[in-house]
Amino acid sequence: MDHFLYRDGQLFAEDVPLAQIAAEVGTPFYVYSSATLLRHFKLFDDALAGMDHLVCFAMKSLSNQAVLKLLGDAGAGMDVVSGGEYRRARAAGIPGDRIVFSGIGKTREEMRTALEGGIRQFNVESEPEMEALSEVATSLGLEAPITVRVNPDVDAKTHAKISTGKKEDKFGIPISRAREVYAMAAALPGLKVIGIDVHIGSQLTELEPFRLAYRKVAELTEQLRADGHEITRLDLGGGLGIPYARDNSAPPLPTDYGAMIREEVGHLGCEIEIEPGRLISGNAGLLVAGVIYVKSGEGRRFLILDAAMNDLIRPAMYEAWHDIIPVIEPAAGHDLTPYDIVGPVCESGDTFAKGRMMPTLQAQDLVAFRSAGAYGAVMSSEYNSRPLIPEVLVQGDQFAVIRRRPTFDEMINRDTIPEWL
Ligand code: LLP
């Protein structure tokens, strides 16, 4: 459920008509619903109620300061994957003891930043990383709390580009080698082993792969405890999928996911962390765009929007489906026209949808891409020298621009021409 509904013949974000935001901010723009973000966070938080737990929002999915503050104030922790994300989280007021640091390529500099600034744990992904962290922590006279990310060799049954838990993937250490890697960690100075981490992929639409992975983590917990390690925390990653098309069968709900976690690892008495991104932010955001032209091609009709692949890369990159709906509610019994919905960027990959059945549209009309809150704005670029588009946050009947559109000069003046040219 989200808070983007038609009311009085037009699409609203909570209590604000999108047409009003478009008139004030200009298109294209991203808009997020506070109520939806909070609702989704709370679904996870409630699903783990009764267990010692922390929901760490995977901020790679949506990292605007205002969104982080909103979720942080509601009690969320953050899963960060770079020094930049760490700084963003801290700048939004998230305490270090609610930040977990994931990623296979943490640099010594990033480790230092997090150790000095305060960190809940590092999810370590390899032996060389472990040695580097040991050195950095020792040189600072600090102790780094760690989990080791294990690769359980489970098929997440999702798009190949976002699957991370098969043995051929670059993530984690093979679970078969976990015991020797934990022995090595225990022997290194400056590290404190506290738990196990696992994340098998994104946009999972079934619980079974999670269940298989968590069962392996539960077995490993018992083995490691028998080996003398104190395993008190399990980070179970993110990955629960969302419905992208309204008429699709629905992926499992956070409540079912939470119940499954309890079944698989509840008996271990560990503190549980999860790292959901998409399920919290995906359906809490829209990309709103204007129609520039309707162009007739050879047996096709192109809807040319002012948003492009640089603003929302998911269709070009993963053949992802996003529902696209008109901002003015179509009249009952309206005709449908097949459109190729494209952006102005100079490559054919800049296509959002082919032959999409839509109510008849014309230049100046507004459309909204659903499910665009996750991996939308954060993956955008300035390709074709198109400045990054604004982000807007709605709460009830108020809205605010939470990242403004840069001016052309700001974009151009980041470059410098050397004096010898
Ligand atoms: N934890 C770790 C260690 C991750 O690598 C990820 C996502 C998450 C948590 C959050 O997963 P989520 O709950 O959002 O599924 N750009 C792609 C998705 C890439 C996901 C990368 N890792 C897309 O647009 O579909």
UniProtKB/TrEMBL annotation:
Pyridoxal 5'-phosphate binds at G239, E275, P276, G277, R278, Y375. Pathway: Amino-acid biosynthesis; L-lysine biosynthesis via DAP pathway; L-lysine from DL-2,6-diaminopimelate: step 1/1. Keywords: Amino-acid biosynthesis, Decarboxylase, Lyase, Lysine biosynthesis, Pyridoxal phosphate. The active site is at C346. The modification N6-(pyridoxal phosphate)lysine is found at K60. InterPro entries: Ala_racemase/Decarboxylase_C (IPR009006), DAP_deCOOHase_LysA (IPR002986), De-COase2_C (IPR022643), De-COase2_CS (IPR022657), De-COase2_N (IPR022644), De-COase2_pyr-phos_BS (IPR022653), Orn/DAP/Arg_de-COase (IPR000183), PLP-binding_barrel (IPR029066). The keyword Lyase applies. Its EC number is 4.1.1.20. The keyword Amino-acid biosynthesis applies. GO terms for molecular function: diaminopimelate decarboxylase activity; pyridoxal phosphate binding. Its cofactor is pyridoxal 5'-phosphate. It comes from the Bacteria. GO terms for biological process: lysine biosynthetic process via diaminopimelate. Residues 36-281 form the Orn/DAP/Arg decarboxylase 2 N-terminal domain. Pfam families: Orn_Arg_deC_N, Orn_DAP_Arg_deC. Substrate binds at R278, R314, Y318, E347, Y375. Residues 29-373 form the Orn/DAP/Arg decarboxylase 2 C-terminal domain. Specifically catalyzes the decarboxylation of meso-diaminopimelate (meso-DAP) to L-lysine. Homodimer. This is Diaminopimelate decarboxylase. It comes from Pseudooctadecabacter jejudonensis.
